[in-house]
Amino acid sequence: MIGHRGAALSAPENTLAGFRRARALAAPWVELDVRLAKGDLPVVIHDDTLDRTTDGTGSVADCPPETLGTLDAGSWFGKRFAGERVPTMAEAAALIAALGLGLNIEVKAAAGREADTARLAVAATRQAWPADRAPPLMSSFSRQALQAAREAAPDWPRALLVDGLPADWHQAALGLGCTVICADHRRLDQRQVARVRAAGLALLAWTVNDPGRARQLFDWGVDGVFSDAPDRILAVA
Ligand code: G3P
Ligand code: MG
Predict the structure, then answer these.
(1) In this model, does residue 162 exceed pLDDT 90?
(2) What is the pLDDT of residue 59?
(3) N or C terminus: fewer CB in 10 A for the chain?
(4) Residue 33: nearest ligand to its CA?
């Protein structure tokens, strides 16, 4: 059970409050999205622009950390979250480690920055992540990002993120040293689940907020799901 962007249905996504909320809802893991702000600082935000989840506007890649640090990433979700910030990767990793949660880092990247984003996200996380804890799971839709993650942290597990399973999913996963596939649950059927599991790979499905659907996926053999509402899913896990 992986809290998606923290616990995105009950706290602003990709914020420290969201990761605390996931912990309070008993999610054992959280997923977050990382991308680079101006100056190559890895920060935790989903979109390539600030507009939807902060009171800022424009591209994250063009926003200097000094400005980013002043933005409100909570008020859009609810007044009680006013003052939440866009966390840096290092801040988020430190809190998630302190909360005792597992961490899945999804590398999002501007075009051409895929490898740099993965490399810098690994470096920032290393500063904050205790060496005696199980390492974070690195994931991305970008194969370049996964290759860079492999070079930066060969011993950290990796997941190939896909919408539907591409024809070369097995070859791609093997080539990148991925042990996990993360797939859009809406595109998964029972036969595909069986094929991935028979290949010896773990399969995680995103983003599942309906407990009935989660139960069906677990019955098919899916290893875990990402959910905005971890408490709902834990009730059937
Ligand atoms: O990592 C699973 C899921 O987070 C992928 O989609 O758009 O929510 O980052 P998205
Ligand atoms: Mg994500």
Answers:
(1) yes
(2) 98
(3) C
(4) 2
Does the pLDDT value for residue 237 go beyond 90? no
Amino acid at 179: T
Q: Which residues surround ligand 2, an ion (CB under 5 A)?
A: 33, 106
- Identify the CATH number of the domain in which residue 222 sits: 3.20.20.190
The total number of structural domains that make up the chain: 1
- Whether 185 is a known active-site residue: answer no
Determine contact, residues 26/81, Cβ cutoff 8 Å.
no
Q: Hey, whose CA ends up nearest to atom 1 of ligand 1?
A: 106
> What would the DSSP string read from start to end of 69-117?
TT--SSTTT-GGGTT----BHHHHHHHHHHTT-EEEEEE---TT-HHHH
Average pLDDT of every residue of the chain:
98
Task: State mean pLDDT over 215-222.
Answer: 98
Ligand that lies nearest to the alpha carbon of residue 8, given by its number in the listed order: 1
The one-letter amino acid at 51: D
Q: Which domain holds residue 128?
A: 2-234
Give pTM, 2 decimals: 0.98
pLDDT at 186: 98
What are the structure tokens assigned to 182, written together? 């993360």
Question: Measured in angstroms, how far is the CA atom of residue 8 from the centroid of ligand 2?
Answer: 11
Q: Do residues 65 and 90 lie in contact, with contact meaning Cβ atoms separated by under 8 Å?
A: no
- Ligand 1 atom nearest 106 alpha carbon: 1
Q: Which are the contacts of 189, defined by CB distance < 8 A and separation ≥ 6?
A: none
Q: Which segments of the chain does DSSP mark as H helices, in order?
A: 16-24, 65-68, 89-98, 114-128, 143-152, 169-175, 190-198, 211-220, 230-234
Which listed residue (24, 28, 46, 211) is catalytic?
Answer: 46
